[in-house]
Fold this protein.
Amino acid sequence: MFKKILVANRGEIACRVFKTARRLGIGTVAVYSDADRDAVHVQMADEAVHIGPSPAADSYLVIDKIIDACKESGADAVHPGYGFLSERSAFAERLKAEGITFIGPPPNAIDAMGDKITSKKIAAEANVSTVPGYMGLIDSAEHAAEIASGIGYPVMIKASAGGGGKGMRVAWNDDEAREGFERSKSEAASSFGDDRIFIEKFVTEPRHIEIQILADQHGNCIYAGERECSIQRRNQKVVEEAPSPFLDPETRKAMGEQSVALAQAVGYHSAGTVEFIADKNRNFYFLEMNTRLQVEHPVTELITGIDLVEQMIRVAAGEKLDFTQEQVTLNGWAVESRLYAEDPYRKFLPSIGRLTGYKPPEETAGSDLAVRNDTGVVEGSEISMFYDPMIAKLCTWAPTRLEAVDAMADALDQFVVEGVGNNLPFLSALMDHPRWRDGRLTTGFIAEEYPDGFMGVTPDETMERRLAATATVLNRILENRRADISGNRFRRKQAAGTEKRVVCLEEKRILVGLETEVDGYLVSFGGDAGLVVRTAWSPGCAVAEMQIDGAAYWFKVSAIPGGFRLRHRGADCRLQVLVPRLAELADRMPRKEPPDTSNLLLCPMPGLVIALHVNEGDTVEEGQTLAIVEAMKMENVLRADKSAVIGKIPVSVGDSLAVDDIIMEFAA
């Protein structure tokens, strides 16, 4: 076994590998850039080596610097994590030449499967079902449109060396094929240094299902079930689960056996994932093979009990798998939510900044419930523009799918993240979405269910009462605290019967009655029986656990003048709790109108201006491209939403912009 493992990565995946290495008694080495000097993975490792400036191209992607770090620390093996150098055969070969073990597959397998064009040819030869497409050289946008038209729309335009949703576009006509080719080619060159593009048929109503495989260096190969990854945004996975609610045992077996056949065809060893697209009739087609550990590997670990990182380490050390296919069993259900620093109210655009608040739910591992949080940040950590905006991967496990989903909903409600825009509200709302709960998924789920973006959850009557009752009780706790401090506690105790309050929930006014009971409160609405509420919340706590009619609910709590901001199940509401007379006066207060920005093109995310397609004085039409802003290595095309004349353009190509910086003004 190895004495010391260096992880050539950062963030949560580096922390994840360190946990297993530590359990196995193996020393750990972190590498870090300038931006990561104080990162969690650096503090967690036994040793840490600085490898350069913040941009990944100058640090985490420089093979020589990783090799030097190995020599400096004495590491005899390297785990690449995912991303960065994890699928670079040149890295694996260089390590081998230096006498350092690469904890991953052999270089020839990385080459064969890392190139999407080559991998599809090998898959076809191994009798793996593949999607119709064109794998030859595409030399121009016109050529791309011609090929796409021949295959038949819709088509998927993809970077051969792509991954993580970069360099991918769906085209439904010739114009979209031309633009998709240009954007995919540019993104591919920027992200992977390889601008080769291929085109394949886009399967309508597709589900994204992937098979986890494990293979050793002695010819043994197994599959460890599947993961459903159909909840995606811009081809980037957002929520995953294992197993899939769609597969039957026969399809699972067929996909698993084809995945094993493909792995054996290229002499694969280590952990790997074979990805498929499945249609509504359970016909499935090979998509690609990822020759590394997947981001979503925890859900497989939770339903199989297999530590995939441990198996990768043991396989790299030359050990045999100590279990057979027949011994792999799927137990219960697991769900993973990827928590990203991106603003769901701005169409999920990236956000950067410092985590002024970060309090994840408590991790548990019981026989009927498990909560796991893989992360590489703590309160005070910086979400940098240089790297992927993932904050954490929250996972829940339970005996059934709906139990796991409900556990995820509760865990998300308990998760506090402040300081950066984040997708917690969307993830929370998703857990209550009927289509998600029924398992009726496609990769177009987010686009289909939120065509205008995520606008938050509008509470129904049941949630309104839950919110109003919570705000009323929290307000009473604050009143009692103020009475204690002022010495008026005795007078407060003399208040008897039902007290009237008006809860102002956005534009609504909800009249409630409040009665204090021995071990809680009774909150009534008109003449009904009301809600019995109990809580141990103390002022200042960021999360309130409320027992409402015997059921547990969690609310994120922030103070506002006269009340609270409560966040729960995707709803984000401001509630004031007032006596009736104050509520009457509050309705007479003037309202401040928001500023008019209709004549401005504002930068929707922190990013770099890489192209300006218009000049001052130009007349533009609706839908015309105005500018392209790159954020997190993704190119975002900004278009005119109406006909207009360009007035002033205060920015230039190469400028770095913050959210809501003005890119251009439209003349009146």
